[in-house]
Design a protein that fits this description.
Blueprint (H helix, E strand, L loop, with lengths): L13 H29 L7 H18 L11 H5 L7 H11 L10
Helix pairs in contact: 1-2
Length: 111
């Protein structure tokens, strides 16, 4: 099942933003290749395909700079990075958690 896409971009973690960027970049590369191939079959040279590739490329470049470059937000921290300062649970608590993971039943059986 797919995730709902109701989360706003500003509410996403840094990791989610980077995953979205990689998806966007892949889509851009595939569509750029499609535009070039379509243009080569119709005209025989790269003509109009340059314009959507350049326009979309500007958007990709801005998104990349906002995540990796000079426009990156220094306060944009993954929530797990903030929690790293907390100590780990003691040995007894970890043992209880491991025992809970070894259940003789499935979650579906409880419903």
């Amino acid at each position: 099942m797919r995730k709902q896409r109701s989360k706003k971009y500003d509410d996403k973690s840094l990791r989610e933003k980077k995953i979205d960027f990689r998806r966007h970049l892949r889509t851009y590369l595939v569509m750029s290749a499609f535009f070039i191939i379509l243009n080569l079959f119709t005209i025989g040279s790269i003509g109009w395909a340059v314009w959507p590739i350049l326009g979309w490329g500007i958007g990709i470049a801005m998104q990349a700079m906002s995540l990796y470059g000079p426009l990156a937000d220094p306060e944009d921290v993954h929530p797990r990075e903030e929690e790293r300062g907390t100590p780990l649970p003691d040995l007894e608590d970890r043992m209880e958690l491991k025992e809970l993971d070894r259940r003789p039943y499935r979650d579906e059986d409880l419903v």
